[in-house]
Amino acid sequence: MSEIKLENLEKSFDDFVAVEKSDLTIQDNEFFVLLGPSGCGKTTTLRMIAGLELPTSGKILLDNEDVTFLRASQRDIAFVFQLFALYPHMNVKKNLAFPLKMQGFKKSEINKRIEEVSELLRIQHLLNSKVSSLSGGDRQRVALGRAIVRRPKAFLMDEPLGTLDAEFRELMCLELRKLHNDIKATTVYVTHDQLEAMSMGDRIAVMNKGKIIQFGTPKDIYLKPKTKFVGSFIGSPAMNFIPIHHPVEKNQNKIVINGENYDIPQSFGGTNSPTNYLGIRPEKMFLTDKKGIPGIVFGSEYLGARKILTIKSEFGNFKVRVSNQVNARIGSNVKINFEPKSAIVFDGTTDKAIESRYIKLN
Amino acid sequence: MVDTSRSPTESSGFSRKLAALIIIIYAVVTLIPITWIILTGFKSVTSSITYPPEVFFEPSLEGYVNLFTTRTRQSQEYLEALPPPETWYEELVRSREMVIAGPSKFFGRYANSLIIGFGATFLSVFLGALAAYAFSRFKIPLKDDLMFFILSTRMFPPIAVAVPIFIMYRKIGLGDTHLGMIILYTVVNLSLAVWLLKGFMDEIPREYEEAAMIDGYTRMGAFFKIVLPQATTGIAATAIFCMIFSWNEYAFAVLLTQFNAQTAPPFIPTIIGEGGQDWSAIGAGTTLFLIPVMIFTVVLRKHLLRGITFGAVRK
After folding, report:
1. What's the CATH fold of domain A228-347?
2. Which of A72, A194, A277, B242: CA 20 to 30 A from A355?
3. Which of B200, B213, B214, B227 best probes binding to A when mutated, by most A CB atoms within 10 angstroms?
4. Which of A79, A102, A150 sits opposite B217 (nearest CB)?
């Protein structure tokens, strides 16, 4: 197994820059997730690692070997496609044997490996079936099998669960994770679904508009988003943002909203931008009788032990995650406050978080 | 009363029956000439030229015997002096006061048709598939113009360029050769093959060949092992169209072939019996000529039916 390193990788299609100079190291045995909205360049990045797309500039290192311009077939990497791409004119067994045949394995060795893999993925009973007769989940398993059977240096997966229905996706998430724990192969997984990314990844890289914006553990990315985009993209519901119409100074530890002072973590940086944003996670907000931002309860989603209130205020809608004990009828007037410890100020011009006692950049 | 037993989108029993009737009438009308020529092949020479034409007649293999042999007329005394005939066809020929002089050229012409027909079909489909794949997958400068250019070769009847081709072929020694005819028919077929196959190739998701390339195959390997098998439908449909054209082509064959590479179409109508065209031999020759292309079409038919509606239903 192996380490994948991207150095200054860039890809443009004619005038359009799909991936801007990116550096990334994916460690050995890691389950690495590339997360971003559609069109952010995550699939292009993955395809460059696979060798299906050549970079405009930059380098790709696989185990310290420069593979930037090697053919896909020479990289010893497996790829799981969103639409599985099982060869429709072959049965399951032949699909699994296909990559092995090319490598010149003996028949007995091929059969042995197919047996191992089909046992691991519980698809023994499907070996003689036609691909077209399989359900989505089974196709997914066979596609994984075809990737695993070669024992490649790394697995690349392009939204492999995207076409499965919700219930099955959850199960496959768990299975994929378990599979990774069993075979410990370096995996790069592309998805636009932040829940998938959070639940599966050892580390996540968040991409937007061709740039890698932040990478770290799911916890890091959730709690300490380095840009407003990450805060709004990660988390369900997303982070709340309160606009602040004045610059932020160094060492500032209070902020004025609606003429009242609120505590924030002491800032180490500052910005001259006239408008900035205070970002707060929904679970760090609460309803209060004392000082708070006034609003009207607009919606309430019941989620068992908790519920999510949508509160309309002059600053826009806020999502507040509260215990379901909290009584808030739709249409009633409430005041909301937040826990100061984890509030993050984002520069309204650069979109970046301002360094503080709570969050450090780099 | 509204009949609720059928779905509203289904046609009613009456209109279906009417449709079937029209189809049957059409089929009969189109089949009459073919049936007639097949029947003529089984008539005796005299019966084939009787007027009014005989619908019921005594079947004879004279046409087939005449097709495969050349014969000479002999006097009664000469025939009586011969030892008794050894085969049924010798007997048949002698009953017409003739003896077999040797085999006819039909077998050779027929073989030429097979070589040129299948050769041109294979080459058209093979080159067409490669070109169609390239057009379907790669960024090619002026792609649309090139595709139009390829199609434009079919915007005039091929025979319009017969004279330059005739002169060119004579100069470079391709006249009356198998290779020359194969190349010529391939050129004519290629535009159809490229256009038809490109449609099919466009329908095949790239992921399949990408998966094969990741699995260790070169692009060429992926093309042959993964793309081509999935384009079977298109290949079959294209092959049938190419085969029918190359098999039936008459004008170029008359113009460019004489001895060595003459195909069956220009040969069959020239079969001369005593006192003009030997219609029963022509009927026999036409019947045999129909067989290969019919077998070819029937074998590929199930692909053809799906193929003509290509793009209509997503896999």
Report:
1. OB fold (Dihydrolipoamide Acetyltransferase, E2P) (2.40.50)
2. A194
3. B214
4. A102
pLDDT of residue A121: 85
pLDDT of the residue at B224: 94
**Looking at the predicted structure, is the pLDDT value of residue B9 above 80?**
no
| Contact present, A293 and A313 (Cβ < 8 Å) | yes
pLDDT at res. B306: 57
CB A200 within 8 A of CB A176: yes
| Residue showing tokens 């050229």 | B105
Place of tokens 């069993």: A182
CATH homologous superfamily of A4-223 equals P-loop containing nucleotide triphosphate hydrolases (3.40.50.300)
Burial of A177 (0-12, 13-18, 19+ CB in 10 A): middle
CB A9 within 8 A of CB A161: no
Name the percent of chain B lying above pLDDT 70: 93
Contact B210 A89 (CB under 8 A): no
A337 phi/psi in degrees, rounded to 5: -130, 175
CB distance B205–A146 less than 8 Å?
no
- Mean pLDDT for B244-258 is 92
Per-residue pLDDT for A86 more than 80?
yes
Q: Is the pLDDT of residue A3 over 60?
A: yes
Residues 6+ apart with CB under 8 A from B14: none
Q: Where are the alpha helices (DSSP H) in chain B?
A: 13-41, 45-48, 62-68, 76-81, 88-95, 106-137, 143-152, 162-172, 178-203, 206-214, 219-222, 228-230, 232-248, 251-256, 264-267, 279-308
User: How far is B310 from chain A, CA to nearest CA, in Å?
Assistant: 17
Side chain identity, residue B184: L
* pLDDT tens-digit series, residues A153-205: 899 999 888 877 877 788 888 888 888 888 888 999 999 998 889 989 999 99
Q: Which domains does chain B have, with CATH numbers?
A: 16-60 (no CATH), 71-104 (no CATH), 107-308 (1.10.3720.10)
* Residue from the list A51, A85, A89 with its beta carbon closest to the beta carbon of B211: A85
Q: Considering chain A, what is the average pLDDT of its residues?
A: 90
Query: Which tokens belong to B222?
Result: 């992926």
Q: Which residues of B touch A88 (CB under 8 A)?
A: 208, 230, 315
What's the pLDDT at B304?
Answer: 64
Q: How many residues does chain B have?
A: 315
Q: Do B215 and A88 touch (CB under 8 A)?
A: no
DSSP letter string over B284-297? Answer: HHHHHHHHHHHHHH
CB–CB contact A146 B215 (8 Å): yes
**This model's pTM is above 0.90:** no
According to the model, what pLDDT value does residue A360 have? 83
Which chain A residues are within 8 Å of B229, Cβ to Cβ? 89
| Contact criterion met (CB < 8 Å) for B205 and A85 | yes
- Subunit contact A71:B217, Cβ cutoff 8 A: no
Instruction: Say if residue A347 is exposed, middle or buried (CB neighbours under 10 Å; 0-12, 13-18, 19+).
Output: buried
- Among chain B residues, the shortest Cα distance to A147 is held by B215
Judged by CB atoms closer than 8 Å, whether chains meet at A85 and B217 is answered as no
pLDDT above 70 covers a percentage of chain A that reads: 99
Average pLDDT of the residues in B165-190: 94
Tokens (6 digits) for B294: 């019919």
